[in-house]
Amino acid sequence: MDITSVVSIVLCGFILIAVFLSFVTVAQGNIAVVTIFGKYRRLMNPGLNMKIPFIEAIYKHISIQNRSIELEFQAITIDQANVYFKAMLLYAVVNTNEESIKNVAFKFIDDRNLMQALSRTIEGSIRGFVATKRQSEVLSLRKEIVEDVKEQIDQTLETWGYHLLDLQLNDITFDETIIESMAQVVASSNLKAAAENQGQALLITKTKAAEADGNAIKIAAEAERLAAQLRGQGVALFREEVAKGMSHAAKEMQQANLDTSVILFSMWTEAIKNFAEYGKGNVIFLDGSSEGMQRTMNEMMAMNKLMESNKAQSS
User: Fold this and answer.
1) If you classify domain 67-174 with CATH, what class do you get?
2) What ranges do the domains of the chain cover?
3) Interior CA angle at 166 toward 151 and 128, to 5°?
4) Model confidence over 264-309: pLDDT tens digits?
């Protein structure tokens, strides 16, 4: 084989290699940054692309997909309480504009330095916010922390070619002693609320019981008043009927020229009979002597005369 044939074979091989190296495939979700001898040249979009072999080079493939990173760091509140955060950061390239892609490609040496700067920037922003709050306020300010961080670092991230999509504070914890003290505060607050509720319930119960007792007493008093009224009416009717009977009997005995004291004697004996028949063990002392009976008769006759005198005056 002569030299011409060798040169031809080498040349053909070189051409084939050059043609092969001229075609570049960029994966979906990525943009390739092309340089010439280390200087930025242009961008390649996803799909099949061509480049000048041996002159143009692929400097870096930039992913335009969303990225996430987990962060763990510590902050101190204004009242010197340690707060521990676990956060998830979601970010992405701002857009596919040439200037944004150039910032992403050339602002940092590599992704490690980017992640370090990004995490430290987020941590610093959150620490600055927490340093103005008390430990009792931090747990209720998740949304405010995220909004404050996004407001502060969005502009900085844009100069790097990125945009903060979301920041989630997945876990916020304190030192064990602070957690115990917070639990004690919550427990004491619950006990206080329970005591207040129990006191109100007891007050309501006693008030209702007092109202019920008052109503019962009122009803009982009304019933007693009515019963007393009815008893008085009954006694009055009884006396009226007795008086009518005695008056009628006295008139008949006067017409028959009989002594009216017989009526009193009959009433005396009937009373003793009733005591004996209907007594239920109660002891009643009566003077059964003739003198005692005479004295009782005289008293009853005097009462009869008094009743007749009152009747005469009223008529």
Assistant:
1) alpha beta
2) 3-63, 67-174, 181-247, 259-315
3) 45
4) 666 667 666 766 666 666 666 666 566 766 677 677 667 667 766 7
